[in-house]
Specification:
single chain, 274 residues, 8-stranded mixed sheet, ProC C-terminal domain-like fold, Rossmann fold, alpha/beta, elongated, binds NADP nicotinamide-adenine-dinucleotide phosphate, 12 helices
Length: 274
């Protein structure tokens, strides 16, 4: 299966590295990338073909992965508009909707339909991401499987049933690492206030999040059950959780994610308005 990436930046580099580790062949991968240094780095590190603009070989692919910034997408697709022959197109661009991508990719009056839209998150850069995916109904099971295998090269995958859910994916796991970093910052501040130096407080905070995440991922118990298991009656954890509950922490976080989802919907409309 021949796969061409449009854009050879951070995320394409992570995907290509993960795909090669999982058995995709370098000879089957190509990258269309404007930057000369980035092209050289991709060719040298992975042995993939990297070109400045679409040529016949780059267009003669089975799958096209769109990996330029959302604001760059319309201009980047202009040279190939109406020139695809039914390829599966997988977009990883945050916020861009299938209808807008299809219009930019297709010929006038004939939008490209065979599209999958994905939202990875930044831990994908170290192979520990989670990606939400949504496929146009015209994409068959084999196309969905291909998209799942490509994005699965940088972490786990979750399919959405409805394109509107992609704004929720953006709000939960796309922006999610920032919420976790913020939590780590707060735990680190608490460590400093209780007498630890920066390095010690940071180590305690980061490794707690890392260990709890791994424990939750590997456990058959729901997170609520794991929480109850470390909360003894009258103990220290109970005191902390009571303080968080009094501050409305849980509901505040839910409201924050809902605010992110609403902003995602607004941005999607802005990005695709022309
Ligand atoms: N990084 C993440 O963690 C993350 C997470 C979720 C989703 N995403 C999505 O992934 C996509 C890529 O993000 P990224 O972080 O990898 O961005 P990036 O590092 O900026 O990579 C994009 C690359 O595409 C190149 N490019 C721009 N226009 C082009 C064109 N017309 N033809 C060929 N190449 C072109 C850029 O070159 P120049 O630098 O010269 O412009 C750049 O090297 C974005 O749409 C983003 O929304 C990223």
């Amino acid at each position: 299966m021949k796969i061409t990436f449009l854009g050879g930046g951070n995320m394409a580099t992570a995907l290509i590295g993960g795909m090669l580790e999982r058995g995709f062949a370098a000879a089957d991968l190509q990258v269309v990338e404007l930057g000369e240094a980035a092209r050289g780095a991709l060719a040298q590190r992975f042995g993939v073909r990297a070109v400045e603009s679409f040529d016949d070989a780059a267009l003669a692919c089975d799958v096209l992965v769109l990996a330029v910034k959302p604001q760059q997408m319309k201009a980047a697709l202009a040279p190939i508009a109406g020139r695809l022959c039914g390829q599966l197109v997988i977009s990883i661009a945050a916020g861009l909707r299938l209808a807008d991508l299809g219009r930019w990719l297709g010929a006038p009056g004939a939008p490209h339909a065979r599209l999958v839209r994905c939202m990875p998150n930044t831990p994908a850069l170290i192979g520990a991401g989670v990606t939400g995916l949504y496929a146009d109904p015209s994409v068959d099971a084999a196309g969905r499987e291909t998209a799942g295998r490509i994005l699965g090269a940088v972490g786990s995958t979750v399919w959405a049933d409805d394109e509107a859910q992609m704004d929720a994916v953006t709000a939960i796991s796309g922006s999610g690492p920032a919420y976790v970093f913020h939590f780590i910052e707060a735990l680190e501040s608490a460590g400093r206030s209780l007498g630890f130096d920066e390095a010690g407080a940071r180590r305690l905070a980061i490794d707690t999040v890392l260990g709890a995440g791994r424990l939750a991922a590997g456990s058959e118990d729901a997170p609520a059950v794991l929480r109850q298991k470390v909360t003894s009656k009258g103990g220290t954890t109970e005191a902390a959780l009571a303080s968080l509950a009094a501050a409305g922490w849980h509901d505040e976080l839910v409201a924050a994610v809902q605010a992110a989802e609403a902003r995602g919907r607004e941005l999607g409309a802005e990005l695709g308005k022309d």
